[in-house]
Amino acid sequence: PLRYISKFRTFVKHEAEKNKSQWKTMGPAKVAVPSPNDFLQKHSKEPKLAPRKKEQDGKKLPALSVPQRTYHPVIRIKKNFINRNALAVIKGVPKKPRHFCVDSRQGDKYLLEPSGLVPKYIKKKDYGVTPKYVIQRNEEIKREEEEYEASVLEELKKRAMKHLSDEEKTSILQALKKNWEETNREFQCLPVLTDTRYKKMHKAEVEMKLKQLEHDIEALEKHKWIYIANE
Questions:
Q1: Domain region containing 138
Q2: Which of 99, 116, 173, 187 could make a disulfide contact with 112, Cβ separation 3.0–4.6 Å?
Q3: Where does the record place the Enkurin domain (predicted)?
């Protein structure tokens, strides 16, 4: 087959030749010469502020230096702090002496009250009383235990074994015998020659079903009382 040639080959070739090396020049590049009138002037590069706007009408007037009629000056009264402190000390309640305990020859002392030697906790009104949060927690634990025991008893009742009455036992026995007769008839109708895998599996399945039915019938006839567990 002929080699594939694109129909845009000539167009692409023309565009490549047209735009090839446009930046190359012979000699200095042709740049527009600035005009003589556009010379650099003094302070021309400094930032200029925006023109100041004229003050609008309705603005608040500047505060006058003359006080208004409703002005009341604050009169500062000199206080004698020495006399005030002396009066406070005279009228004040005297401090109670603090009890200390000295336990060394060098005179090392410490406060007696926070040391634990003063029996102040046994003098409280609520000393020896069980806290409210402990009582509440014990009640919650007791309630949870009762709920758990109730749920266990309910679950045991659900799982309790049910006694099978004589009528139910007779009806179940009759149904099992009828099922055994149908399965036995099916077994007798099986072919003598079991040459395929399906025939072997089917025969084994029917034999297992017969054995299970015979076992159930024997168990029901052998035992007088039958109990069934609730699932």
A1: 98-160
A2: 99
A3: 136-228
